[in-house]
Design brief:
N-(1-d-carboxylethyl)-l-norvaline Dehydrogenase, domain 2; elongated; 291 residues; Rossmann fold; alpha/beta; homodimer
C-alpha cells in the first residue's frame, strides 16, 4: 500500500515518520514546501510538488491539518487526482459536518473517507501510541488497519462518517469541565493553606479524581504550565464542539464558560501554555481578596 | 480508651459498629432515642440518656451529624460534661469555620478537637474503609489513631483545625465540575448517536477520564441513578464550599452552576438519586431540539 501524507506539523511529521518506519510512506506534502522537502530528504521519500502530485499514484492519503477549511480545501484538490478505490484518512480534529462534506466530495470519485482524529499529543505521535477515533464504513476501517496501526495504539471504530470527530469532541468537552473544576478546587485549597502535594496524593485516589487532577494539578502547585495541551488548541477544539451542538440548537454551558476563560488567558499571552494555566484566573480571585 | 458516639445515621451507625468491633465503643447517643437504644441493644453497649451522660466518663467522643448547627449544638452540650484531656472527633461534613468554633468551645475545657470528615459512602463506613481527612494538632491526631483506624483506611492529616473540612470541600468542588462535564459530554455523545458503551470504554483510558466518567457514565447510559452520592447531600456540601469561599470574598462558578442544577433536580423529585442524574437536564436539551 502506497501512502501519501499531507500536513507535516508538530503531529503530522512524526506520524508520517511512523508510516515510513512501517514501509508505507511514498510521498509527503506540506503547504510550506520547505518542510516537506526537509522531511522527504530525511526519510528518502518523494516531496510531492502539489496535492494532485501526492494523490495521483497513492492508494491512500493521510491528512493532518489545522482547521475545517483546510480539510475541505485539501480534499477539493486531492479528489480529482485520486484513483477510484483510493482512501483518504483525515487525522485532523474538525467538525463532524466537515467529515460529512469531505466524504461526499470523495464519494463522487469512488474514494473512501475516514475521519480519524487522534489523542495522545506530540509524545503519542512520536511513539506511535496515539488513540485514534475512527468514523466511516466498516470496510474502509478494515482497509485502513495497516496505516492506523503504524501511527496509533488504541484504534476504535465508532460508526459512520463523523462519529470519530463526535467521539473526540465528547472527550474535549470533558477535558474542559475537568480542568476548570480542578483549577477552582486547587485555588480553594491554596486559599485554605492546605499542603497541596498531600491533597493531590490523597484526593487523587478517591472519587473526585481525574487524569487531569493527578497529572496537571502539580503544574498548578509549581505555577508552571509547560505544554502539554495548549490553550489555543483546546480553544479551537471547543469552538468545534460549540458548532456541533449548535446544529442541534443546543448551547454547552461547560464549553462556553471555558471558551470565555481561554479567551482571557490568550489575551494575556498564555495561549501556548498547557490548559492547566486556567488555574491562574482562579488563584487570582482568592489573592485579590485576602481574608 | 472509652469512646462515645453521637449521631447514628446511615454513616454513623456502621462507623460506631466498627468502633465496637475494635473494642473501643462504650456508649451511643442519637437525637431520636429509639435508634440509639436499638443499636445499643444490638452491640451490648450503653445507650446514653443525654449528651452529658455520653460525655461524662468518655475519653473520646465521635460525632457524625448532619449540619453545622448540629455540630455546634452537640459540642455545646458535650463540653461541660467532658473531663479535661478528653478528645472530640467530628466526622460530619461542615465548614472549617464550624470546626474552629467547636475547637474554641472545647479548648476552654482543655478538650482537644479534630475535624475529620470522611469519604467513601455507606459502603466505606460499613467496611471500615473510609478515607478520613483530619485537621487539628499533631498530638491529638496521634492520640486518635486507634479510633480513626477502626473506622477508616486512608487517614491523612492536613494541618491545623479546619484543614480536614477544607480538604473535603476541595474534593466536593471537583466532583461538581466533573459530573457536570461528564453529563454534558454524554448528552452530546448520545445526540450524535455514538455507541456509548464503547465511548466510555475508550475515553475512560485517556486524558479526559475521571472516576465519575468510568463509574457513573454507565448510569447515564441506562438512565438509572441509584444512590450513590445523593444530589441532596452533595448540594449540602456545595453550600458549605460556597460559604467557605465567600469568607474570602470569592464566588465559585463551578459550584454555583451545579447548585443551580441541583435545585432544579431536587424540585423535580430527583434529590435522592445519585448525582449522575445531572445527565437528565443535559439530555433533555438535546431531545427538545431534534435536528
Amino acid at each position: 500500500m502506497k501512502v501519501g501524507f499531507a500536513g507535516l506539523g508538530a503531529m503530522g511529521a512524526p506520524m508520517a515518520t511512523n508510516l515510513h518506519r512501517a514501509g508505507l510512506l511514498q510521498a509527503v506534502w506540506n503547504r510550506t514546501a520547505a518542510r516537506s522537502q526537509a522531511l522527504a530528504a530525511q526519510l528518502e521519500v518523494r516531496a510531492a510538488a502539489s496535492l494532485a502530485d501526492l494523490a495521483h499514484d497513492a492508494d491512500a492519503v493521510v491528512l493532518c491539518v489545522a482547521a475545517d477549511a483546510d480539510v475541505l480545501a485539501v480534499v477539493d484538490e486531492l479528489a480529482p487526482a485520486l484513483h477510484p478505490g483510493a482512501l483518504v484518512i483525515d487525522c485532523s480534529t474538525v467538525s463532524a459536518a466537515t467529515a460529512h462534506a469531505a466524504a461526499a466530495t470523495l464519494a463522487t470519485r469512488q474514494v473512501d473517507f475516514l475521519d480519524a482524529p487522534v489523542s495522545g499529543g506530540i509524545e503519542g505521535a512520536e511513539r506511535g501510541t496515539l488513540a485514534i477515533m475512527v468514523g466511516g464504513s466498516e470496510q474502509a476501517f478494515e482497509r485502513a488497519q495497516p496505516i492506523l496501526q503504524a501511527m496509533g495504539k488504541t484504534i476504535s471504530h465508532f460508526g459512520a462518517t463523523g462519529s470519530g470527530q463526535a467521539t473526540k469532541a465528547t472527550n474535549q468537552i470533558m477535558c474542559a469541565g475537568i480542568i476548570r473544576a480542578v483549577a477552582e478546587a486547587m485555588a480553594f485549597a491554596k486559599a485554605h493553606e492546605l499542603p497541596l502535594d498531600k491533597v493531590v496524593a490523597t484526593l487523587g485516589q478517591g472519587a473526585g479524581s481525574s487524569w487531569y487532577f493527578v497529572n496537571r494539578a502539580p503544574n498548578m502547585i509549581r505555577n508552571h504550565y509547560p505544554a502539554g495541551f495548549r490553550v489555543r488548541l483546546h480553544a479551537k477544539d471547543l469552538a468545534i464542539c460549540r458548532a456541533m451542538a449548535a446544529q442541534h440548537g443546543v448551547e454547552l454551558p461547560v464549553v462556553e464558560a471555558m471558551l470565555q476563560e481561554y479567551g482571557e488567558l490568550i489575551a494575556r499571552g498564555h495561549g501556548d501554555e498547557d490548559i492547566s494555566t486556567a488555574y491562574r484566573l482562579k488563584a487570582e480571585l482568592f489573592e485579590r481578596q485576602p481574608d
